[in-house]
Specification:
The complex is a heterotrimer of chains A (316), B (353) and C (307). Chain A has 316 residues and is an all-alpha fold. Chain A is built from 12 helices and no strands. Chain A: Belongs to the binding-protein-dependent transport system permease family.
Chain lengths: 316, 353, 307
């Protein structure tokens, strides 16, 4: 690698918030010795309380999204009575009632599903776009790399939320769950691309890839067997954190009025509705905010713990 | 040796005959989560003005750690100096205030390192880094310090010093970078220069030039030179005396000529057998069997015994000299030669006293 | 160096054009007829509609529309909105608010982030280090939307220390929104500085600096911090561009009339010219500050002096 390349890679990693990987471009994770990277990482992870806190909340969120009935204490989010409007939390109704007099706990709990679907769907699209474009760009280099990198720069230069707002308002995709996920992914895949590209370039210039090439391995084989497995660690860290970021972004878009719409149940909608009642009924903003924050935090914590476990430099 | 500190004068002016540096029973440990690593275990030596002492040993033998302890640049924690004393011109460095210790570094004792590229700060010009010595210790202005840096670069024979003074470390070749390090280290005419593997990272031809430079500088200034290395050739060429370290201890000490021609410790003997000799062309090289010891779990008795070809265990051993249980002290074997082996006389081929 | 900058500058042109075209295409693909919407309930005369369509080049194919727009833009003409107001006037009026907000945010993340990161990095595993680690994890994880409300409610409504919304109290009104806007970057700067300082403290050249007998303060500031700040400064530099384009939520919650708020309102009102103009401006800032960072990198790290 040239110095300039190294600086670029370093910068990409800094922007991606992860420093994993580049530390050891000379070590191949596909060989025996490096399989211990993952078992070492797991050993490290097991001892990290951050990881367990994140995992527990992450699991709780997952359950809430799949079987919300378990958490709603028997209330139906759509069975409302205006006579209960804005009631404060009580022993009977832990989160109180919203403006329409719906049980707020049930509403907040049922909001998890849309967050999860959008988070997972968007991150899947981000990964596919990021890995494919990044791998092709880094592996082939030359004009392919220049072209794809400029394309990435174009998307990168447009503010993330703003890009998604414009896409959603243009109405090309509609306003449903899938539309929100795609709009987020369309302006959120660039970091994954740069991360994969960095890794591919770093690994490509390593000795063991030169060795594989010398033994006559084909491009496709080198890419699949040697280069991509090395990019897994940083991408995994990035993915975990990004699910949280995307969930927060969905809430933001919905809050701004361009994401999900009624009658969908969403934390963003709840915060938006509660906003005007902040002085009189702060619980309407408070509860969805707390649950949203804890969910995002769960993914960020798991991602952080993963990074610490996977970064060889942290393990001196 | 325990009453040494009473016999040492505390004034700055050391009386004639007092060595420049006296290291006495130095012990350094690294306390980590996984256990205590005993890096230096009772090392003693002294250095006179103009003397070149080579400290020879494998990596992990404690040679660099002891040097860093003398410089006061060990990272504490995890390192702990758990015992002993270091007397520089009669003053115990370990009892000095941090500020006094700092004032010794540079004008008193100075050090150069193995990897000059990583040891020089990449973001400052070499002139600036050399000049820092004058600014920090002599309070010179930046401009004046730069002028002195050019002179020093000339002195260590860097071509076109005046032109290159504002260049950055990465713009120099390996040999030239090491010269920059040397220029920095000798800037304040130190009494002692510690060179930690100064030529290991260099090409063979450049190695010789750098060693020649060090020898010339020593002749000019009369400084004491501690040469830390695992390179027997370098030791043979430039050192007066040699101390061989193993597992954080000195296992043999004497003049280079003596030790190299007739080792008194099986480890030294092994070292000599593992390098090619011009005279013994065609013969087989004999590597020392086994691995260097884990400093967290140093073998009982003589730390070298698991690898020793001459070890005597159980009934074979003389009373009180069982290699796996009895620790051999560093003792005078023949005049001018100390070794830490129960059977040094046998190694040397002389009759036991 | 000059050639390097020139080359980078050339590379940014396709990015700037590409990004503005992307937004242009998305905006003018908006469904519904903006001219008809303008008329509201009262239908406009066909002649008027035709005139307006002609004025805004709405009958040309998209690429032609864009080229015409670009031609005007190059001459400093951002066009007018459907009400005939110059877009450049809107920008001139709104931009200072966003710039002030960004200045406050960058100042906060730089000063607090670097100091906290430095102290944490020097004493790793100390109290402050753990505090920085835990608080940065939490702050990074709180969505800016939530943080904005919490700050507004706790520090504005309950404690009454800060104005809740608007810019009536001068620079002071920007403090709370600035803190909210900076929070994520602040946590990241603190972490980056901490990691960088801790890493550099173990560097060989820091050992050399100690061996030279330099005073501890010089070792830390000159030989540790200076090197550690290279990635931090570049991050902060690039963050200026990011924050200027990322203030939509903050400006909305705190009701600050900046360009983020303006572009959002314009999207809602389908004011294509305003959206495209402001987004192009944001993209320009983003690219500009990234270019500054590239140059800065070369200035800070002599190993990367480009030739």
């Amino acid at each position: 690698m040239t110095d300039q390349q190294q600086v670029d890679l370093r910068k990409d990693e800094v922007e991606a918030g992860t420093t994993t990987g580049l530390a050891s471009p000379s070590v191949d994770v596909t060989n025996e010795r490096q399989n211990s990277l993952w078992s070492d990482a797991w050993g490290e992870l097991k001892r990290n309380p951050l990881f367990w806190i994140g995992a527990v909340f992450g699991l709780l969120f997952l359950l809430m999204a799949i079987v919300p009935q378990l958490f709603a204490r028997g209330a139906d989010p759509r069975a409302c009575s205006l006579s209960n409007s804005n009631q404060k939390p009580s022993a009977e109704h832990w989160f109180g009632f919203d403006q329409q007099g719906c049980d707020y706990l049930a509403n907040v709990v049922y909001g998890a599903r849309n967050s999860l679907i959008i988070g997972l769907l968007a991150v899947a699209v981000v990964l596919v776009l990021g890995v494919v474009v990044g791998a092709v760009s880094g592996f082939y280099g030359g004009w392919v790399d220049s072209l794809l990198s400029r394309l990435t720069d174009i998307f990168y230069a447009i503010p993330f939320i703003l890009g998604a707002i414009v896409v959603l308002r243009s109405g090309i995709l509609g306003r449903g769950v899938v539309a929100v996920a795609i709009a987020l992914a369309a302006f959120g895949w660039m970091t994954a691309m740069r991360l994969v590209r960095s890794q591919v370039i770093a690994v490509k210039s390593s000795d063991y890839v030169a060795a594989a090439r010398a033994m006559g391995a084909s491009n496709g084989r080198i890419l699949l067997r040697h280069i991509l497995p090395n990019a897994v660690a940083p991408v995994l860290v990035y993915t975990t954190i990004t699910i949280g970021v995307l969930i927060a972004a969905e809430a933001t878009l919905t809050f701004l009025g361009v994401g999900l719409q009624r009658p969908a149940i969403s934390w963003g909608l709840q915060i938006e509705n509660g906003q005007s009642l902040l002085r009189t009924a702060p619980h309407l903003v408070l509860f969805p905010s707390i649950v949203l924050t804890v969910t995002v935090m769960a993914f960020v914590m798991m991602g952080d713990a993963l990074r610490d476990a996977l970064d060889p430099r942290q393990r001196a | 040796m325990t009453n040494l500190d009473l016999s040492k004068p505390t004034s700055d002016a050391a009386p004639a005959g007092t060595p420049l540096l006296d290291v006495d029973d130095l012990r350094v440990e690294f306390r980590t989560r996984t256990g205590t690593v005993h890096a230096v275990n009772g090392v003693s030596y002294s250095l006179a003005a103009g003397e070149t002492l080579a400290i020879l040993g494998e990596s992990g033998s404690g040679k660099s750690v002891s040097a860093q302890a003398i410089m006061g640049i060990l990272e504490t924690p995890p390192a702990v100096i758990s015992g002993g004393g270091i007397w520089f011109e009669g003053r115990n460095v370990l009892e000095m205030s941090a500020e006094d210790q700092r004032k010794v570094r540079g004008p008193g004792i100075s050090m150069i390192f193995q990897d000059a590229l990583s040891s020089l700060n990449p973001v400052y010009s070499v002139g600036f880094q050399i000049g820092e010595m004058f600014r920090a210790h002599r309070g010179m202005s930046r401009k004046e310090a730069r002028k002195r840096a050019v002179e020093l670069m000339d002195r260590v024979r860097i071509p076109a010093a005046a032109r290159r003074v504002d260049d950055y470390p990465h713009q120099f070749s390996g040999g030239m970078r090491q010269r920059v390090m040397i220029a920095m280290a000798i800037a304040l005419d130190p009494r002692i220069l510690i060179a930690d593997e100064p030529t290991t990272a260099l090409d063979v031809t450049v190695q010789a030039q750098v060693m020649d430079l060090l020898k010339d500088l020593q002749r000019e200034t009369g400084m004491g030179l501690i040469l830390i290395t695992h390179d027997l050739g370098v030791v043979n060429e430039v050192a007066d005396n040699v101390a061989v370290m193993y597992a954080g201890e000195i296992v043999e000490r004497g003049t280079v000529d003596d030790v190299f021609t007739r080792p008194a410790h099986p480890y030294t003997e092994g070292l000599m057998g593992s390098v090619p000799q011009v005279e013994a062309k065609g013969g087989r090289l004999q590597p020392i069997a086994g691995q260097p010891p884990n400093l967290a779990r140093i073998p009982s008795g003589c730390p070298f015994h698991p690898r020793c070809a001459r070890r005597r265990l159980g009934a074979e051993a003389a009373p009180g000299r069982e290699c796996s249980t009895d620790v051999p002290p560093l003792r005078l074997v023949v005049p001018g030669r100390e070794a830490a082996c129960h059977y040094s006389e046998e190694v040397l081929g002389v009759r036991a006293p | 160096m000059g050639r390097y900058i020139a080359r980078r500058l050339l590379l940014t042109i396709p990015v700037l054009i590409g990004a503005s075209f992307l937004i242009f295409a998305l905006v003018y693909a908006l469904p519904g007829d903006p001219i008809r919407a303008l008329g509201g309930d009262r239908p406009l005369a066909p002649a008027v509609v035709a005139e307006l369509r002609d004025e805004f080049n709405l009958d040309d194919p998209l690429p032609v529309q864009y080229v015409k727009y670009l031609g005007d833009l190059v001459q400093g003409d951002f066009g007018t909105d459907f009400r005939g107001r110059e877009v450049i006037d809107t920008i001139e009026q709104r931009l200072p608010v966003t710039i002030r907000l960004t200045i406050v945010a960058i100042a906060i993340e730089t000063v607090i982030g670097i100091i906290a990161g430095l102290l944490a990095g020097i004493r790793r595993n100390g109290f402050l280090d753990n505090l920085v680690l835990v608080s940065s994890t939490i702050v990074v994880a709180i969505p800016i939307l939530v943080l904005a409300f919490v700050a507004q409610y706790v520090l504005g409504v309950k404690a009454g220390w800060f104005p809740i919304a608007g810019i009536t109290e001068g620079w002071y009104s920007y403090l709370l929104p600035g803190l909210v806007l900076a929070s994520g970057s602040l946590a990241y700067v603190a972490r980056l500085t901490r990691t960088s300082v801790a890493e550099n403290l173990r560097a060989d050249y820091v050992r050399t600096a100690r061996a030279k007998g330099l005073p501890n303060r010089t070792v830390i500031t000159r030989h540790t911090l200076r090197n550690s700040l290279i990635p931090v400064v570049t991050f902060i530099g690039a963050d200026i561009g990011t924050l200027m384009g990322g203030a939509i939520v903050t400006e909305t919650v705190f009701n600050l009339p900046g360009i983020g708020r303006a572009v959002f309102d314009s999207v809602q009102a389908q004011e294509g010219a305003v959206v495209v103009g402001i987004v192009t401006l944001m993209v320009f800032f983003f690219i500009f500050f990234n270019l500054v960072v590239d140059v800065l990198y070369a200035v800070l790290d002599p190993r990367i002096r480009y030739d």
